[in-house]
Amino acid sequence: MSVCAAGSWGVAELAGLRATGVEVADGVDPAYVTDFGGLREASPAAVARPRTVAEAATALAFAADAGLPLCARGLGRSAGGQSLAASGALTLDLSRLDAIAVSDDDPDALWCEPGATWTAVVATAARIGRVPLVAPNYLDLTVGGTIAAGGYGASSFRHGAIAAVVGELDVATPAGGRGRCGPLHDRDRFDAVRGTFGRHGLILGARVPLRAAREQLTSAVVLHDDVADAIEAQCRLGDREDVVLLEGFCTATPTGFRFAPGASGPTSCWRYGTRIGIDHDADAPPRLDALLGGLPAGRLVSVERGTTSGFLRRLVPYYELLEARGEMAGPRPRVDFLLPWDAVRELLPDLLEGLPPEMGTLHPLSPVDPARLAPLTDGPSGEGACELVVMTSTAVPADATRRCLDWIEEADRRLLAAGGVRYPVGWLGDEPEAALDRVVGRRAEAWETARSRHDPQGLLRSVALAG
Ligand SMILES: Cc1cc2nc3c(=O)[nH]c(=O)nc-3n(C[C@H](O)[C@H](O)[C@H](O)COP(=O)(O)OP(=O)(O)OC[C@H]3O[C@@H](n4cnc5c(N)ncnc54)[C@H](O)[C@@H]3O)c2cc1C
Question: What value does the CA radius of gyration of the chain take, rounded to a whole number of Å?
């Protein structure tokens, strides 16, 4: 990938931007120096916080005219510097642009500004008896940041990435100004900004598709000892029309402590879980025995009933508690892969065996429809696909961080060789040039073409994905 020279923001340029009416903070709040991962730090020249979508477009146009670098930021939930502007560049914080519009003409979609969170999207949709067609598992993410990343959740087994289902976008690019684009209109821009981490343009609005939600959701969790059994269960359940949500996970049960010469630390036994969700009328709950009957024998460990919106909010109280306890500050290594099932069967148990205990004991491993990814996302090669997320929720002690990053490197090497690709929201290594090559994979030419059309000066960049 080519590296374009870009200038840097100085006092005069920032004054020029302020003169257009865009709010530029005095000094840089420390919150903008790092992200959710807490592993990288970078201090931007300044932080602009537009109050309107028009102001955000103005800031981009100003930067494009002056040849100055900038980086969009939602809530900075990515974990490897993807939303961090390098020194001399401007951070464009889009989180204030959080309006959501309900349309009487189109109740099956919401128009969302980029900083709207999924928490607000789910709440707004619930008021009209609907849920997003695909929502991420954790809702405290922005709509713009999630579409820019790709976005996967518990209905991705059927509908794929959030970036693949959005109906229309409002996009501003350094080369082309601002306008609406979609599957039938300005398709090139529409494709260029989905799943490409803000490198080709800003997403300033999105039509987020909804579906009608039935009165209740019944969720059941089945545990398997063998990963192959869990995969078979997930594939069979994913084919059923009544299953509306499907997620998997791997979970470790502590079994003791190592004592062999040279060995130390805890031992654990990994199991593989599958959670299904079926929505139904209150008086017609699903028959779980019939549903689970033909699957590889596993243990039914929990059954819960509530609403689909309630299910989608399930992680929010957990993270609020961690935040309140102060357990989130510090490094949180994270890695995400899109994997063919063969790679999971062959490599995952062995990789988990060596996972540092500080990385945690519960990791999502959920099916994703590989035919419905963002257009420029390099998909896994092989049968089926799932998203594996290995992340710690709480901060890792400083002395364990290197061990965790080494495990990520090892997993990267083995899983990518087996047909996997990165979902690059986590740690991407210390070398931004190499990271970009790793992210674009077989789509390198298409990324390069999109970049040269929409951001030929290479202004939109982060410390994670330079070049
Ligand atoms: C606890 C936790 C749980 C998560 N769960 C999920 C999950 O279930 N599913 C999932 O897909 N992801 C998940 N993620 C990852 C998350 O999707 C990514 O971090 C994503 O980046 C959204 O976060 P954000 O809105 O804070 O965006 P940021 O991290 O701020 O930005 C992400 C990237 O998009 C760019 N960007 C941001 N806004 C825009 C915009 N409007 N236009 C163009 N580019 C933009 C940024 O420059 C950056 O490269 C999770 C993250 C955390 C911390």
Answer: 22
What does DSSP say about strands 243-257 and 266-280: parallel, antiparallel, or unpaired? Answer: antiparallel
Q: What are the distances in angstroms from CA 438 to CA 63, 149, 151, 266, 294?
A: 28, 15, 19, 33, 40
203 lines ligand 1 (CB under 6 A): yes
Per-chain mean pLDDT for the chain: 94
Neighbours of 304 (CB within 10 A): 14
pLDDT at 3 exceeding the cut of 60: no
What are the sequence ranges of the domains in the chain?
Answer: 100-212, 216-422
User: In whole angstroms, what is the distance from residue 409 CA to residue 426 CA?
Assistant: 12
CA separation for the pair 193, 172 (Å, rounded): 10
d(CA 163, CA 208): 10
- For residue 211, the CA-to-ligand 1 centroid distance in Å is 23
Is the CB of 198 inside a 6 Å radius of any atom of ligand 1?
Answer: yes
Residue 198, classed as helix, strand or coil, is coil
Confirm or reject: Cβ of 216 under 6 Å from ligand 1. Answer: no
Task: Answer yes or no: is the C-beta of 169 below 6 A from any ligand 1 atom.
Answer: no
Whole-number Å distance, alpha carbon 368 to ligand 1 midpoint, is 18
Are 230 and 246 spatial neighbours (Cβ–Cβ below 8 Å)?
no
Q: Span 216-422: which CATH code?
A: 3.40.462.10
Nearest CA to ligand 1 atom 52: 77
Which CATH number is 100-212 given?
Answer: 3.30.465.10
- Of 101, 72, 82, 122, nearest to 312 (Cα)? 122
pTM of the model: 0.96
Nearest C-alpha to atom 48 of ligand 1 is from which residue? Answer: 83
Which ligand 1 atom minimizes the distance to the CA of 197? 49
CB 149 within 8 A of CB 425: yes
Residue 423 near residue 387 (C-beta atoms within 8 A): yes
Give yes or no for residue 415 having a pLDDT over 50.
yes
